[in-house]
## 1
Amino acid sequence: MSMPDAAPFLVVKNLCKSYPERKPSGWGVKMRPILKDVSFSVRSGEILGLLGESGSGKSTLSRCILGLEAPDSGEVLFEGQAVRYWHVRHRGACSVVFQDYVTSVNPGFRVRDIIAEGCRAGGGGNLPEEGAVAALMERVQLPSRLAESLPHQLSGGQLQRVCIARALASNPYFIVFDEAVSALDVSIQAQILDLLRNIKGDMTYLFITHDIQMATLLCDRFLLLRNGELTATVECAAMYSSMSPYLQELMDSTIVFSSEYSETPTAAWEPYA
Amino acid sequence: MSQVGAPIAFMEHVSIIHTDSGRPIVSDVGFALEEGHCLGIVGESGSGKTLICRALLGLLPPSLHAEGVIRFEQTDMLTASSEETRQLRGTGIGSIFQQPMTAFDPLYTLGDQFVETLGEKLQLNLAGANALARYALALVKLPEAVMKSYPHQLSGGMLQRCMIALTLAMRSRLVVADEPTTALDAANQYEVLQRFRRLREEHNVSLIIVSHDLGAVQMLADSLLVMCRGRCVEAGDAESVFNAPQHPYTQYLVSTRLALICGFRRVLGERNVHA
């Protein structure tokens, strides 16, 4: 458990980012703001959700945090250090899992090599130790017979597990999940979320999603992003004390499945057996 | 004329077979859809949901063929000529596909595509097709500027609504929606589903909705077909299947879905405490 008064792990201060956009006349460019003065902090060991519609700037924000994008103004500080220094000094400490599992792996690599690449990134370029890849595959519940498979031979859920194993390979303590479960079948989503919870340990997660049901299921608290502005920080345990019109609107437009069936899911049914 | 009570779409013992190897991909599926009703088809990816829709539309890929009985109104879709089935698509059976971005031609404005489709299907002249397209877009609450836009300039939700507008304009009697909400984000999903509901209530359109999202299907469907590995494992009235699933696969689907939303339901429960 993290202490509320402990120094935050990640601080984002007054972050602004804009992208160039062609003017309607077709001549010249103007800057279109994507993130407008975003500030928040992530406590060590927590699962922070980032909730917003498509186009709200979620992915841009995650790219700024990952150091893939330089902000126009404002700061991203990991443990008090600027993001571009921190990533260099702490190789492998931060990992990412993207939404599109098909395009985030090399189609010509075998599963073993995809995961080994992550080990090398975290281990200063050295080849992984004997058994390291097998241990990672076991950690994400991938059968070892898949080690020699190519990505197109795996199902979506299995491939996303490979991506998670690769993210874990560098021994990170901070992982960004950018819509990591959104492209999966609903029944597979549940399995992947279970896995994320099981492997968490004392890692810190930033979990980006557009689905409020996911956010409330996994996160301790979540940030509400709308048109590039942070509209609210919501504690999942006390959602109604921080109710805003936008949050209400989101909750009303959520399609909630209801059923009187009350058995807990059994792992006995493996859809891709 | 269709007689009263006759199903608008009917399938019996339908198998879809890979022609070269003789391997069945879907086997022994059947349903009867009454006019004005909605059938939901749920199941994992790769279970053959989409193939059933394509068989009904007469749009199976060339390497596959269907056996059994597939009827739309009075037409036998398996023996009808390709010209006959082509005439039925659009005006008879409208279809809404999963990927809104690939359903339209990226090189033409939506206006051009509406006018071409409506002109061909309803034998309208340019002005008539234009007027009808504008009217249909207004029905789904899209601005007229959409007519001059290219597909890449619109969001997934707007394109999805354009497809619905097209089926409205052609007065399709049956709409087949294949994963209509999967590519959309939560707020748009709700809006699109509302649109479908209205399609049924105001225009008496029959609906087949295919999805792996049980919440979306529950919102619309009267009856349900659960598919697993090319077979129909459970069928029946939607509420009773959702509330008392019999087959282990259906039980698995329902319980994992419930497990996914338990966090949200806890929060909703909190609202009741506050109220």
## 2
Amino acid sequence: MKAAILRERSGALLLVSPVIIFLAVFFLWPLWTMVTAAFVDDAVSKVLPRTAASIVSWNGQGVPSEAAHKALVQDLKAASDEQALGEAVRRLNSAASGFRTLLGRTIPAVKAAPDPAQVDLLAVDPRWNDTRFWVALKEAMPPYTDRNILAAVDMKRDASGGIVAEAADASAHRLIMLRTLLVAAMVTIACAVIGLPYAMLTASVTGWKRSALLLAVVLPLWTSLLVRTAAWFILLQNEGLINRALQAIGLIDSPLPLIFNRLGVVIAMTHVLLPFMVLPIYSVILGIPRNLMSAAQSMGAGPVRAFWRVLLPLSLPGLLSGSLLVFMVAIGYYITPALLGGANDQMISSVIAFYATGTANWGLAGALGLILLVVTTVLYAIYGRFSTPQQVPGA
Amino acid sequence: MTLAKKLTFAVCLTALVAGAAVTSAQARDLTVVSWGGNYQDAQKKIYFEPFAKKTGKPVLDESWDGGIGVIAAKIKAGVPNWDVVQVESEELALGCADGYYEKLDWSKLGGKDAYLPAAVNDCGVGAIVWSTALSYDADRLKEAPQSWADFWDTKKFPGKRGFRRGPKYALEFALMADGVPPADVYKVLSTPEGIDRAFKKLEELKPNIVWWESGAQPLQLLASGEVVMTTAYNGRISGINKTEGKNFKVVWPGSLYAIDSWVIMKGSPNKDAAMDFIAFVNVPENQVKLPEYIAYGLPNKAAAAAVPTNLQKDLPTAPENLAGSVPLDADFWIDNIEELNKRFNAWLAK
């Protein structure tokens, strides 16, 4: 009996295993990599173990003792793995700008010296007299760090280890994150305002009209995002189609600023994301019995009241899932704000891309990604709380 | 099918798939990566296709937008799927220090003396000398702007200005507009006061700046009249003048020039073919064809000397163009790009 249940269970497990494997490989593993990249900080201590041991006792004032200098020279002499050393250098330069060229000068000097004990760091480069670099070195030694996650929200640790805000003009991750959410919200609202009537119209007509309306929504999905963005560029620019036409009919004298500002970004993103709003609403409205509106009217409700009390509440699930889809996709937008936006429309994904591909600072890129994930999850939880299906009588 | 047959079939299939995977990993064609656009079109015509014909083996070409993170990720992934890459000077310095590139065999390249000193590196050999400069549409502007001070002068030249988004180039040009002589730009910029000064100067122009990111954008901005002046890559300017009959001009004094280099990815399975390719590109007779298509300077001295005089005047390496220009300081930027980019973003967001 037990064996039979076990066999059944393992059979079921076998059946869902593709899903589990898929989730593990494409979701959990990347997520775990991102988290470790943000918190694990062993690049420096791995390459400079003697320095790590010797600098622990240094109090952070002035310059560490001669022993620490010797340890660093020995470590650099012994370091044979170029790539590991490179990672350590990148990590240190990210903490103190200038470390890159400092070590770029020091490492060859140490390697060339016949006797490492004879190397005088200060003679190689006077910057070794600068406390800043030694502090960065000491702070890079613990195997785990919160510096990335702090930097992602514009915070840092001061000399005494307390958490303080960065100077206002030094970092703007929080502001860019808020802006990302704001733009995504604006796009979601614009999509809802256009998408709801559109979906209702599509659901209310039949035959070729419905096909034409649906095609108009789905067709842009088959065009590359870049092409659609470029098309908006041509339409919205100062001497573009829209401004020319408005000027030709005498509505405006000088071109409207439609591009390189938030308006241009919202217009283009709304167009690109509209299908994600229209299709869920449309499928929900299709499932609403058509006679409900007539029933409402027969009971004395005017068209507006019937819409407000009957059709809108019933299509709400579609509207909510459409909004969620649009919002989630909009948060990750990158190309459209870069091409159509102004100085103030850069979104968080372009900052993440800068750290990931531009400077290979995967720790900070991971931390920013993590913050984005947490914010989105919280919003999703709020959404889940408000959108628990209410039992509509008769539905 | 009986069970035995099924099993044999499955085994055969697996072997086939595995075999295909192994051969494809070994016999990947030589993959060359460059910067795309009309530049890569020219390279395809004068380098990639003739090399493929000469060796009888196909050459794959891809394009990229730069970034040491891209190179690092490919190296970390094990065997890289690129062989030869054209990189900017920062990527050359960073990647060479971090062991991401193979060391070049300079004996195959005709020795180090055959090149401009700045184009010689253990890991890379210069491919082009290119400039970022003030550019404008001479058909639209009656009076020609002369300098970065003119670029900042919105009274004399009303209208928007195009700027590459990011601190690199923007800070240097701002300092020159503020009266710093080109030769002293990096000296000033390496002090905190210098950086403050550059940001303050940028602040003056901020409401009039349209920021661009990819090299094709400034051309579009100029062509549509969206901006009256912009920073742009000199080769693209001469390229569009040639292909679309535009009358765009480059202001050479105060321009910044840099060298792009060819490197071979560490662990490339096509290392020898990659070295042969780089040698082929650096044969003066091959390299000299490039300026006919796009106005970039040639690091190979023999090739540079052989460029026809009518093409010389558009190259960043022409003596009269070099006179007032500054070489981009790659060391400054590899030290400071992260901190300054963070500050730049914060400044933009204000």
## 3
Amino acid sequence: MEILNEMEESVSPDPGFLTKTEPVAIKRRIARHLGHLDALESEAIHIMREVAAECANPALLFSGGKDSIVLLRLAEKAFRPGRFPFPLLHIDTGHNFPEVIEFRDRRVKQLGERLIVRSMEDSIRQGRVVLRSENQSRNPFQSVTLLDAIAEFRFDACIGGARRDEEKARAKERIFSFRDEFGQWDPKNQRPELWDIYNTRVHPGENIRVFPISNWTELDVWEYIAREELEVPHIYFAHTRDVIRRGTGLLPLSHLVQPLEGEKVENLMVRFRTVGDMSCTCPVESSAVSVVEIIAETAITRITERGATRMDDQTSDASMERRKKEGYF
Amino acid sequence: MSAIDSISFDHTELLRFITAGSVDDGKSTLIGRLLHDSKSIFEDQLSAITHTSRRRGMESVDLSLLTDGLQAEREQGITIDVAYRYFATPKRKFIIADTPGHEQYTRNMVTGASTANLAIILIDARKGLLTQSRRHAYLASLVGIPHLVVAVNKMDLVSYSRDVFERICKDFSTFAKGLKLNNIAYIPMSALNGDMVVERGDKLDWYEGMTLMDLLESVPIDHDINLEDFRFPVQWVCRPQTEELPDFRGYMGRIESGFISVGDAVKILPSGLTSRIKEIVTYDGVVDDAVAPQSVTLTIEDHVDISRGDMLVKPVEVPVVANEFDAMLCWLSEQSLDPRRKYLIKHTTRTVKALVSRIDYRVDINTLNHEAADTLKMNDIGRVSLKVHQPLAWDPYQRNHATGSFIVIDEVNNNTVAAGMICPVKD
């Protein structure tokens, strides 16, 4: 906590800014000023409480990834000592890392909250999702299962962990992002979002996606994980793994990803920056085995999170925009 | 690990700013320059725009491409709406609300400005103070942005002339006298060449003030929040009703302004009942006091009926409680204001039905003249009188942004149709 000298005069940057000299009593209070993580945390708590109070039937999307881990802590901060006023929802691609699913279930049990899992396998079995091949990335098709779950439970709001620093289309998305009855996002027709007054009103059948950590960066997320001492699945930390070099990235060897002709399997020290679909989530070479070391790496990293780790986003510059329009998270 | 030593987690302040200006003023280039020179551009982003610049036949990397947005925008060569961008230096973390120009300007700038600590108004040194610069300055004063930077850009195209810069500063400050704008800084720069953005360059030796980045890193923002008047709109009432906590009744919300301590007397509005703060509860334990903008849970000594939409204040510093007030409205919707219709107003955590009982005037934002009006169209700004069906606890916007602002919602299509700022009571 910064202590301001009572006798200190405020320094006015030159030229032009005039700073009032405030009475000592007010200065003392100002000296308690909050850091950026406190400001972001308070904003996110405020957003979650607005959803709880104004939406009839919300859900919180929890995948076991770091962003949704942060969301859970924020929900605890927003609603304890009460229970969460919404269930947790996981859209299971069936291509998850087993460690992440194990972590997901353990965390939910600790919290004592309700988890709903809806699986893409079911959507595939019902013929709602048709894949070209079994090993194909399932990320683009999560929308179908998500929209089905929204319809099944009549959710009018889904709280998600998307951040605006992730991607160009996200940078233009509102915190309360309105979707029509087909789950579609229309970037040209968004509700203006002023101050911290959120318009949560929807007609039956429509819903909103709410992103309480819109204003957080990847670094903020890791700093918060460190500050709150949050547990994350251990594949976020550096470990040795069999990987295949493909394009500009590394792909983890698994039953879904096997070397093509001319590719060889290497055993490298890697960590994951995101934990999505196993068939397209790329690890990065790293020696960071603790949160603090991840923060150090993130602070000096030179490649965006999605650029480094998502094969499917590289397909086209506009792929996220297109997926969002189709109802993606 | 030396990298860790340079990271300070918690004590970095957050500064939100908006950039006002059209593409022609070099706004995208300026943002690109800030990101580039502060080493906030990632390699993959840089290689993507380098590739695009080359494909378009440019010699150097066009930094304005960094803020190039969606497919829909690229196809039509337009910019949609507000985009948010993030960068950090060891001193501060920054959020830029990047708002496009063009005819939608008022709507976009008001939206971006509503959360900003600072606005950068870009002026093309060759063109001087234009109508749009006046418009930007007026909007900044209307929304009450605490700090203003007038960035006189493209100094390279006027031979870095001190006379040109000083003339523009003089013109702007003459105009600004009529507005409530106190904290104005003037910086000559060339975003294209990087002079006075992050680096000083060697062409503007006659200018002794700060670079834009120095200023962004040091402008004092502690004063931007009202710390005088305690305002706590109740968002959610927490009643666990568990075996351990059968009678717990916590009022959850965010302290929008001011400061509260355990034992303080509080008044509940609009009922006017009073009580005392028993506990300030947070997930990390109970605390003795809390300050804006913290989100906390409050319990009080007495059993008083309190629900969402009520506001806790200190009895010595009360807001106005009334169901009629005047406000400046910025109309945001393609459907014009219809004074015969009822609208919804969302003010803090309370939503009420409202009627526009009179339109005092519309502001011509180019001349600042007041003109008679019987409606407000998209991008219009006007002063109106409003009646609401339940009393609201409010402060004038210029005293307290959180309790002086509201949005207007069209009940039929649920769209946000206007932004409102409550005026002080007339003498």
